[in-house]
Amino acid sequence: MKVLFVHSGNSSRYPVSPFVLSQAEALRKSGVEVSLFPVMGRGRDYLRNVRPLRERIRTERPDVIHAHYALCGWVAVLARSGRPVVVSLMGDDAQGTFDPRGERTMGGNLLVMGTRLLQPFVQAIIIKSEGMGRAVWRKRIMHLLPNGVDLERFNPTLFGGHTLSATSRAKKCVLFLGDPADPNKNVALVRDAIARSNRTDVELITPYGAGHADVPRLMQEAHVLALCSFAEGSPNVLKEAMAMGLPVVTVPVGDAALVLGDTPGCFVAGYDAGDFADKLCRALDLKGRTTGRNRLIALGLDAPAVARKLQAIYSSLLTR
């Protein structure tokens, strides 16, 4: 089976988004031939990718085209290849974008409208969490499939124990991996929570510029991961933290509560800084690491398991 991934190529940090690349690698390990087509530009510039994509399809003749993000789905549809098109909704294309007050922006409303208009032209829609399904009216072709985690890469045994960096030995580290400048990531909540806690032994780490290859090490060196977003699909960073046994404090966003379950050391807090501070202190005082890795395996959220489910979706389209 040959699959062509159509994905955004606009990131200044990654040529290919880490979760897209991870999914491609997992599929390749399961025997699927995967190639990548980056969509360059923003807004109307997306349309400039239609002709190059059409030529790429003629050359490679993939069986399935899998677009990651609704706007990439439009590029795939307009290429008119005659192949089945799968679109994975990523988050803001299903939920919109948000301002610092947590209210959806006009641009976010337009994104969601574009997602709804796309649906008659694709053969399968993948959502990462149940809440994203509110943007999908073609329920018959909708599939719930969160991204999986590469448990080989996110493995605490690779680091030989909990080794804190020299600058962090005196304090407990709260790790925030979102972009602090992105209103949706809501870094103000964890900053306010730390201030409310009145603890002098805690520091917030926001290494947004770090590469994805550095994330396992950062998680091994941290004491808690904080996730504060107003909207997410199925946050990969939360699952990666669980794979590393890192305690988590998160707001009830996406499928966070479902994924955490009742894992000791992992907490769901409200958007109130006082509640978040309380849960943060409880997580910081945990002795040792969590059993989140076992929870991921039980839910079938390891990368090979998700790849098998995705391959089954592709196969179902080819047998129609």
Secondary structure topology:
Elements: E1 2-8, H1 18-29, E2 33-39, H2 50-60, E3 64-68, H3 70-78, E4 85-88, H4 92-95, H5 106-118, E5 124-127, E6 142-144, E7 172-175, H6 187-197, E8 202-205, H7 215-221, E9 224-227, H8 236-243, E10 248-250, H9 256-260, E11 266-268, H10 273-284, H11 292-299, H12 303-318
Parallel strand pairs: 1-2, 1-3, 3-4, 4-5, 5-6, 7-8, 7-9, 9-10, 10-11
The portion of residues assigned to helices is 25-40%
Biggest beta-sheet profile: 6 strands, parallel
Q: How much of the polypeptide forms β-strand, as a percent range? A: 15-25%
Number of domains: 2
Notable characteristics:
12 helices, Rossmann fold, six-stranded parallel beta sheet, single chain, five-stranded parallel beta sheet, alpha/beta, 2 domains, 320 residues
Structure description:
The protein has 320 residues and is of the alpha/beta class. It has 2 domains: 164 residues, Glycogen Phosphorylase B (Rossmann fold), CATH 3.40.50; 144 residues, Rossmann fold. The chain is 36% helix and 15% strand. It has 12 helices and 11 strands. A 6-stranded parallel sheet has the order 2-1-3-4-5-6, sandwiched between helices. Strands 8-7-9-10-11 form a 5-stranded parallel sheet, sandwiched between helices. Helix 3 links the parallel strand 3 and strand 4. Helix 8 packs across helix 11. The longest helix is centred in the C-terminal third of the chain and has 16 residues. It is globular, with a radius of gyration of 20 Å. The protein starts with a strand and ends with a helix.
